[in-house]
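Teaching assistant's notes for section 4

Start the section by putting this record on the projector. Ask students to predict, before seeing the second block, whether DNA topoisomerase 1 will look compact or extended. Collect guesses on the board.
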Amino acid sequence: MSDYLVIVESPAKAKTIERYLGKKYTVKASMGHVRDLPRSQMGVDVKDKYQPKYITIRGKGDVLKDLRKAAKKAKKIYLAADPDREGEAIAWHLAFALNVDETSPCRVVFNEITKDAIKESFKNPRAINLDLVDAQQARRVLDRLVGYNISPLLWKKVKRGLSAGRVQSVAVKMIIDRENEIKNFVPEEYWTIESTFLKDKEEFEGSFYGVDGKKVELKSEADVKDIQAQLKGNAFLIDKVNKRERKRNPALPFTTSSLQQDAARKINFRAKKTMMIAQQLYEGIDLGRKSGGITGLITYMRTDSTRISQNAIDEAKDYIKEEFGDEYVGANKKRTQQSGAQDAHEAIRPTSIKRHPDDLKSILTNDQLKLYKLIYNRFLASQMAPAVMDTMTVHLLNNGVEFRATGSKIKFPGFIKVYVEGSNKNQEKETFLPDLEKGMEVEAKKIIPNQHFTQPPPRYTEARLVGTMEKKGIGRPSTYAPTLDTIQRRGYVRIEDKRFFPTEIGEIVIDLLEEYFPEIIDVDFTVKMEEDLDFIEEGKIEWINVIDEFYQDFHKRLEKAEEEIVEVEVKDEPAGIECEKCGHEMVYKMGRFGKFLACSNFPDCRNTKPILKKIGVKCPKCKQGEIVERRSKKRRIFYGCDQFPTCDFVSWDKPIEKPCPSCGELLVEKTTKKKTEIKCTSCDYSEEKEVKTE
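Reveal the predicted structure now:
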């Protein structure tokens, strides 16, 4: 019989912790929550101070039976769920189910699954923090009141299967607002003038700045011609040379949001995938007997804090000194924490800087290695010295017309030896300028005007949407990935070329919410609600008061909506083709994964087909069909002939229209995060072209 029973959330974590604690401890997994609100009803008694009605989750009976059996044999029970609000709530539910006194020192928390962190946490157990539990309970009750009241209304008035939620509705509204901005955008014309200058056979680039020392914007071709008319010959005099040293500090260690954003930019991971793999790295990877067995490789991955423990800082300093030299060690000045951050635990970092990604190549999966390397390098860089750049700006004059040329050279690489933030890839590139001094004369070899038009704001990618949500204070680290997943599963938005587009059904739902429940999609309301949840966690306000303040007005709006909303008929759009099975017209319908084709004679005829997106390329195999975009069962895009199954041509790479200039066969695009390579499917011909990065 073990003296102590420890309950964690996952079996992987249980194995790791049991090995660290020794024979006196039995560690079991609750497999997440054991109690929750019922799915079949709201489960919140609005007449009795919004008390939730918890039930044992279906399928968890055997888990609870096993835990109760183990609990009877143990002298002491420790609840070691994750160190956040939800983890605290899980511990509270377990305490109720196992008759553990919630005020006793039964709760242990740790930010990393390492031997030292685990043993230290068991030296300092505490009571369950009921303020944390109340904050999580308030979120759960609030979301249930919104979802289980508005969703049936949407089912009845619009379409079955719809739902509404606080954070997800705001996210959809943001995507729709951005789409409207793009539709209403009016491009404005502007011009630039670029020049290639020559100094002693050395070329360098410059661009028009202004006239007589003042910056001038070129809005038309007439403006450009005025400037060209003012120029006298091709000789430019160097009027001024400004040289300075510029320092750039490393990015802070990862939070949940910044990890999801950089994982999207650098390794092309969706938010859901990033969090799934981060969970694996946190809970533990088997490094083999000699390397310590199952070991947690990163600290907890749901955090909005950039704080780092002193032990981790000291370990990183020693490593940097040894690997790079003293001059590469950062000063570790106090960096400002983001406003509104809970700062409950540390930033995301490796549990030991000594576990270099290269040493784990044979142990981790390819995806695990990519994410671990990203986290490792970001943390290591955050503890390194700033990069130092020598920059030079040259002012060139011709009859009052000023051009400017800028150059930069890395004087000291500092942290960029290890890592550069995803959105700043080009900031540390060196730009050549020859040795130039005031009074020198150079020749303008080419002066080329270029017409441009302002571009609309970009559509949201997952990374950009998460970043905007965090900046506005919408949601918290644990909600970003589930929110993005939910709005796609519900069919409110779709993703094309990694960018969000709203669907018709999404626009209908948001229009209804905007008219009858404006607070649900109001950013300020959502931000205030998140702040109130934080205040509940800090013990400053009562959770019931927060819910009541919201519900009283919400309930009146709900009654009004029930009476006034006219049933919305989402008409099926004719597709202009006949059903090959019964001859009736096919129509476009909205499904879980977007639009699809269905027979209008439903339910008598249940024929459905995917909508095939043609890419303008003839099938190279049958020469009759056209290549169309398809999706695999895992939603991955591939390309095939529209004559399938008669023709079975398929390709993961996108075929292009022009034939190979070498052999005349099919060319395809192979895209990476840095470039698109066009390759022949028959010979060795290839060419490259740049891919636009976010």
